Amino acid sequence: MSEAELAMHGDGGPAKRPVLLFMSDYDDPAEWAPALAEAWPELEVRVWPEIGEPAEVDFALVWKPAPGSLRQFPNLRLIVNLGAGIDAIAADETLPADVPIARLADSGQSEMMTGFVVLSVLRHHRELRFFEAAQRERRWAYRHPREHRDCRVGVMGLGYLGLAAARALAGLGFEVAGWSRGRKAADGIECFAGQEELPAFLARTDILVAMLPATAETRGLLGREAFAALPEGAKFVNVGRGSTVDEQALIEALESGRLAEATLDVFETEPLPAEHPLWAMEQVLITPHLASVAVPRTAALQVVANCRRVLDGETPEYTVDRGRGY
Q: Coiled-coil regions in this chain (predicted)?
């Protein structure tokens, strides 16, 4: 243990073990506990709701905690979010302002997201839905493949995950552009920024990949105006947040043919209600928010490193701005 760890709540007696609380209804603590123990053998992991003495909890590793559930830990030093999106935590006004929140940005999570995005883009580009329909009809239907360079892909959101996906698509030969709130730069990727450049970005995009965070600025950003700016017959992939899309506008764009197809992994309401019209649209592929998840084997190393940084008085990596929402 480091000097900072040995001095935790130092009173001259035996050193207190650092305590991390795991709180998630979506992630398996049986996978996380061994990974965390391997990364930091001295760490004690407690699983919600078995919290023990609240004052002993130093760190919280969470996904969508109930509002107010973290306020009971008076010595909480760090909250680590089990994913990239922090909208659930950012909305909790009961959290102490001085407790930093860090998001995950591990290699396993990035690889998983990149793979899903590439799979979705290739499925749309190679028109697999057409061939799936032909197979059901036992019909030999040939369509000549187009080169990757003839397809213009646009990635909205050039954060850690978005930039990795954009680079992978560019590496496959697609003509890739990216859009973000602030100016970014990446080799081989044309970068657009801000509201004033959004129409031009959309107008040059045949397959739009949304990887935006949930913030006040992005809520409903992809609506009627945005879909109308895309070329007729464009295709749409959303792996960011459901709140960024006006779902009624999306349905209308799909019904009119403005959008030819969509792959949707995230929604305004999750689980997607059984009566939602998107379920019945043959041109839509729905997946249950699984494009990317945290991988304990790799992510535990980042979690532990950030906990150690906090104990040593350093700023954790990938700290989020609560006001901006990412």
A: none
Hey, which residues are catalytic here?
A: 241, 289
Answer yes or no: are the C-beta atoms of 274 and 299 closer than 8 Å: no
| Residue 296 identity | P
Residue ranges matching CATH 3.40.50.720 in the chain: 3-106+294-311, 108-286
Does position 122 have pLDDT exceeding 90, yes or no?
Answer: yes
CA pair distance 176, 171, nearest whole angstrom: 9
Q: What is the pTM of this model?
A: 0.90
Q: Which band of pLDDT confidence, cut at 50, 70 and 90, is reported for residue 233?
A: very high
Superfamily for the 108-286 domain: NAD(P)-binding Rossmann-like Domain (3.40.50.720)
CATH level 3 topology of 3-106+294-311 = Rossmann fold (3.40.50)
Q: Would you say residue 266 has pLDDT above 70? A: yes
Average pLDDT on 50-57 reads: 97
Q: What is the pLDDT of residue 3?
A: 44
